[in-house]
Write a structure and sequence with these properties.
Strand content: 15-25%
Distance between the termini: 28 Å
Number of strands: 10
Bound molecules: 5'-O-[(R)-(carboxyoxy)(hydroxy)phosphoryl]adenosine, zinc ion
Shape: globular
CATH superfamily of the largest domain: ATPase, nucleotide binding domain
CATH class of the largest domain: Alpha Beta
CATH architecture of the largest domain: 2-Layer Sandwich
Helix content: 40-55%
Largest sheet: 5 strands, mixed
CATH topology of the largest domain: Nucleotidyltransferase, domain 5
């Protein structure tokens, strides 16, 4: 089965062509992304209105690029999988309406996909992983721990109570005047810094050891920068110290969850999974307990349509097709 995946939940418009023969066995023939960083950079964050207006312009070309790079035509596609939530509703609607129009015009079956399910299954695009496995989804919009029990069966163990980890990276980079998106910049700057130089308090959520909280570290950096000592702080040391705090606050609950639920494999996914310190630290902590860390390559960590095609593929293989009145949902949750 050849599946066209379409993703437009936030600031990236993406399309992919995936070939699949059975559940979880898939080859990505093409995966293309139209990135909007240049549009949002001057605002230091995503402007929803601009994101959706830009998707209107780029959605068709990005799909055409994916088909061309896969060497396939629309006539060869057997089904369409499109993100329907969670995300920015104006952005979601562009991809969803395009997919519905395409399905209506071609008669192809289509399914609406949960974006988080895409992230949870993304590690399978490159590695066969036996289920159940633990997944840490850590991006600009989400920070959560799930057990992936089977296709369509996910159990949420914990999540952030406030900011997502990527959001904290981006906000701290903005406070430090480093640019946007901040995660990658802080990651690179940290390599020249000493994470022991600046004391950043770690937050724990009382009574919920598998939950996260990142608003405190962001506020700690803001107060430091406003303090008398602020002007004298070394940027690389501050970046490294902040990053270390976030990494520790991600690693501790993840290992606790793996232990508590006796899960041997930990999958790391979402844009912040590109963070070099997080990858190293989580891999070392997992190996220390005889567990295995699986992290997709960067192109499948950040928002992409290959993961959406994969998350729609098992339903399309089963003959599912969603009704035309299926709506976009900004706060769509995964069935537990
Ligand atoms: O998954 P993604 O592309 O979009 C969302 O669904 O949010 O993730 C984007 C987030 C941004 O917050 C960005 O700063 C962060 O991932 N990010 C990083 C790194 N690369 C991207 N954070 C820390 N270290 C990195 N190397
Ligand atoms: Zn995402």
């Amino acid at each position: 089965m050849l599946i066209l995946g379409i993703e437009s939940s936030c600031d990236d418009a993406a399309a992919a062509v995936l070939e699949t023969t059975q559940r979880g066995v898939a080859t990505v023939l093409a995966s293309t992304v139209a990135n909007q960083d240049d549009i949002h950079r001057i605002y230091g964050g995503i402007v929803p209105e601009l994101a959706s207006r830009n998707h209107v312009v780029t959605i068709q070309p990005v799909i055409e690029r994916a088909l061309a790079s896969a060497g396939r035509s629309l006539a060869e596609i057997d089904g369409i999988a499109v993100t329907r939530g969670p995300g920015l509703v104006g952005s979601l609607l562009v991809g969803l309406m395009y997919a519905k129009g395409l399905a209506q015009a071609t008669g192809l079956p289509w399914v609406g996909v949960n974006h988080i399910e895409g992230h949870l299954l993304a590690p399978l695009l490159e590695h066969p992983i036996r289920m159940p496995y633990l997944a840490l989804v850590v991006s600009g919009g989400h920070t959560a721990l799930f057990v992936v029990e089977d296709f369509g069966r996910y159990r949420k163990l914990g999540a952030t109570r406030d900011d997502a980890a990527g959001e904290a990276f981006d906000k701290v980079a903005k406070l430090m005047g480093l640019g946007y998106p901040g995660g990658k910049i802080i990651d690179e700057l940290s390599r020249a810094g000493n994470h022991k130089c600046v004391r950043i308090p770690r937050a724990r959520v009382k009574g919920a050891p598998l939950d996260f909280s990142f608003s405190g570290v962001k506020t700690a950096v803001a107060s430091l920068l406003r303090s008398e000592a602020g002007a004298g702080l070394s940027q690389p040391d501050l970046a490294a110290s902040f990053q270390e705090a976030v990494v520790e606050m991600l690693v501790r609950p993840t290992l606790a969850a793996a232990r508590e639920h006796d899960l041997e494999t930990i999958a790391l996914t979402g844009g912040v999974a590109a963070n070099s310190r997080l990858r190293d630290s989580l891999a070392a902590a997992a190996a220390n307990e005889g567990r295995r860390l699986v992290a997709p390559s960067f192109k499948y960590c950040t928002d992409n349509a290959a993961m959406i095609a994969l998350a729609g593929s098992y339903r399309l293989l089963d003959g599912a097709r969603d009704p035309l009145d299926l709506d976009a949902e900004a706060n769509l949750t995964l069935p537990q």
